[in-house]
Design goal:
Two copies of one chain form a homodimer. By secondary structure, chain A is of the alpha+beta class. Chain A is built from twelve helices and 16 strands. In chain A, the strands form three sheets. In chain A, strands 9-16-11-15-12-13-14 form a seven-stranded mixed β-sheet, with helices on both faces. A five-stranded mixed β-sheet of chain A has the order 3-10-8-7-6, with helices on both faces. The radius of gyration of chain A is 22 Å and the shape is globular. About 1% of the residues of chain A have low confidence.
């Protein structure tokens, strides 16, 4: 058993029941012995769905399927397996998805086109989907509004803890719940990470509006994290809105009645995204990188990721070494507009460099002390514009190498 | 003392004297105790110079200086120190370069504008250039046509072995020597790597022609390697041509009389570039990645680097794990045009996947055996065009993390 990440939250949150959603977690024996590895959700009629997917050109068969179905009609079911990504499996992969969808549609008596599928695990191995379909017998009796911790555990691969988050907000005079789970700890980079996240709400939101607010929230959360700069073939974020809550009608993404919901959705996603970083393979430190003064928000994010993805920056942080020269290097390689002689860097609130050189009388002691903590803050001010962005990452440790040098074998 | 890389060549090559070039290696005590850390070269009048530099937006003061001087007039001297990169040092860095140049120009009695400078080591610390200038007293007596191994050793930082290469070719009926040294083992990525390389020849080649053939050779050699995807602030390749050889006049880069020279220059640079990869921090395996069937050569190189820079691919190789799914992932994230269902992958000459899925009756044994060797070959055929490229990298091991988590402290 792998040791839980030192950066893990103390406990899994108490996600309440979400009206219109029933869930079940099953052990189907795909790869992991003695643990649940299949998660199924069933949604009441009228549930809307939005999705954001990997930009990989070698996306998995389940991603292909979900991309085609999302935005067309509603959603009645979701099935997620861990242990095999069903990626780069050609026609066999496509057939495995179709058979899984058919079975689940039959068991739940819902249209096939409203069944969503996600798979995570090894790439390139043919998915023995009969193990999945066989385990769906008796599913209906297992479905219940509770069991989020089990669900978050069933979708784990190299994760060391289950990830969940939730918020309660008001739309008009109705209380609405947003609850979500996620998995991911390696192959994490923007657009998207090897991560799956499923968010559920009882809000009543039309598909196009749901898609817009989802995409915006993903951009600030899941697409603002990186563990190793690698991008998975399987990344999927799906948001399901059952519409069970009785609140005033929403018709536009910018509707002021939806403001609290938008914020809470971003908070739930950011919470989940940060948990993924906290479970970064081998991570011993959680790193927040704030970039300001860039020519645009997009440029700021790119500079942030150049820092977050630099193996030299990440190993220096692992070594608790205030080697800020590597931050300069990473900013320089970002390709974004930078004026070296205006650049300012601070670590843990202490200004280290400004106007392109180390500050007079630089005292390393407070910075060295900060580097010994578990939460590292790096701020870079490019001082050339107003673009700003925050990205999150973790350090690169021996643990990362150990986990990935013998993950499959 | 750090252990020599297991991938190091058996011995340093016997680079002969190059007419018009005198060299000296000195211990100036910048950072390293008990070893030489300063390299100086003096060139006869009429020496031409070409250069290719880092694309970093936070380039070092010496890079700024060389960029300004290269291509203007000739070169009479070169000075290179290890231990301090004089990067991100603002006005102080610029002044340090100017003082160093002035001193060397005075000692050798040459124009300041024809003195070239390079520095490698820690970023952000002010360079105590008085240590350099003080050690130039008595330089003239030290200059000699021999001592390439010492020179290659003097410019090392985290390198575990000195890097040199040479070729002899004919231009017309004259023999010409091309000899070069290089340093670099971390912060290595294209455009350019944290690497310095200086190549010397007695050929007589006009500046513009020399620049063209240099840029082409760099593109196929130094800009086709990666250790960790990080790009230094200091990367510099300079080629000095003294013109001492008596051969027919060359006036165009594509002159057929220059053909053997062009090939040999690329060979010397590729040899040096591969030695840098073989000295990659913590490297235990040398990896050649051939990409073919891409939409263009540029696209092929980008796909190659997506594989070469993927921490997941590199750790799998370190673990001798034939986890080719990660190669699929890396191809997918390259952003280049890829048709998943046409993709073919082979490892060590064994076809693993084709037409977007694992081959029928895939036998892992020969691939697993190949993964246990020191020289790993990965070939990817995108099967959509004629673009091809080769890039070289190394694996990502515990050694990389160890070296970089405590390099500076």
């Amino acid at each position: 058993m792998v040791k839980k990440s030192p950066l893990a939250p103390v406990r899994f949150p108490k996600i309440p029941a979400i009206s219109g959603v029933s869930i079940a977690s099953i052990s189907c024996g795909l790869k992991y012995k003695g643990r649940k590895d299949l998660f199924v959700a069933s949604f009441d009629k009228g549930t809307k769905v939005a999705g954001v997917f990997t930009k990989s050109k070698t996306a998995s068969a389940p991603v292909d399927w979900c991309k085609r179905q999302v935005g067309r009609r509603g959603a009645r079911a979701l099935i997620v397996n861990a242990g095999n990504a069903n990626a780069f499996t050609g026609l066999a992969g496509e057939k495995a998805v179709r058979r899984t969808v058919e079975w689940l549609a039959k068991v739940l008596n819902v249209p096939r086109s409203q069944v969503f599928v996600a798979s995570t695990g090894v790439i390139g191995e043919i998915l023995p989907d009969d193990k999945i379909t066989r385990s769906l017998v008796g599913l209906k009796k297992l479905l219940s509004p509770y069991g989020w911790a089990d669900a978050a555990t069933a979708i784990m691969t190299t994760d060391t803890f289950p990830k969940g988050a939730w918020r309660s907000v008001r739309i008009g005079d109705a209380d609405v719940i947003i609850g979500g789970i996620a998995k991911g700890s390696g192959m994490i980079a923007p657009d998207m990470a090897t991560m799956l996240s499923f968010v559920f709400t009882d809000a009543a939101i039309p598909t196009d509006v749901l898609q817009t607010v989802t995409a915006r929230a993903v951009d600030k959360s899941f697409n603002a994290i990186s563990v190793d700069g690698d991008t998975s073939t399987s990344d999927t974020v799906l948001v399901f809105a059952t519409g069970a809550a009785k609140h005033p009608k929403i018709s536009k993404p910018n509707d002021t009645k939806l403001r609290a919901f938008r914020i809470a959705l971003e908070e739930v996603m950011t919470d989940l995204a940060q948990q993924i970083v906290r479970d970064g393979e081998g991570a011993s430190k959680f790193v927040t990188i704030n970039v300001s003064g860039a020519s645009s928000a997009r440029a700021a994010k790119k500079v942030g990721f150049a820092i977050a993805n630099s193996p030299l920056v990440k190993t220096a942080i692992a070594g608790e070494d205030a080697n800020w020269g590597r931050i300069v290097m990473a900013v320089g390689k970002s390709g974004e507009r930078v004026d070296r002689d205006k650049l300012a860097i601070s670590i843990g609130g202490t200004t280290v460099a400004e106007r392109g050189t180390v500050v007079d009388d630089y005292q390393e002691a407070p910075v060295a002390k900060h580097m010994k903590g578990q939460e590292i803050d790096v701020s870079v001010d490019l001082n050339i514009g107003k673009g700003a962005a925050t990205v999150w990452t973790c350090d690169l440790t021996h643990g990362y190498v150990s986990i990935n040098a013998d993950y499959r074998s």
